[in-house]
Amino acid sequence: MDFFISSAFAQAAPAQPAPGGGLMSLLPMLAIFAIFYFMLIRPQMKRAKEQRSMIAALVKGDEVVTAAGMLGRIEEITDSYVTVEIAPNVQIKLQKQAITAVLPKGTLKSA
């Protein structure tokens, strides 16, 4: 008749956690956060800082590339906008954030 009722056996007492066990369980999470910080967050912050300094240093006559890929020469700068000449007598007005790169002088003549 033992096949209808399973036998009950005593269990051993649970093991005591090792000292510092709470810190050891947080260590992998801290390591993952550190990896994300140094591999993703910090480089992105550095690129954003470089972009802000490049936009702040724009002056009339700089040759630039826009986010749309157009090349042009800066004709006028205001607080938020830049007027760029992309062809003779063709000017467009852009937000400063649309400027992605400043080209070396003389690049437009060879393009």
UniProtKB/TrEMBL annotation:
Subcellular location: Cell membrane
SMART domains according to UniProt: YajC
Predominant cellular place of this UniProt entry's protein: membrane
Domain of life: Bacteria
InterPro entries: Preprotein_translocase_YajC
Gene Ontology BP term (one): protein transport
Membrane topology note: Single-pass membrane protein
A GO cellular component entry from the record: plasma membrane
Keywords: Cell membrane, Membrane, Protein transport, Translocation, Transmembrane, Transmembrane helix, Transport
Transmembrane segments: 25-42
Similarity comment text for this entry: Belongs to the YajC family.
Name of the protein this chain belongs to: Sec translocon accessory complex subunit YajC
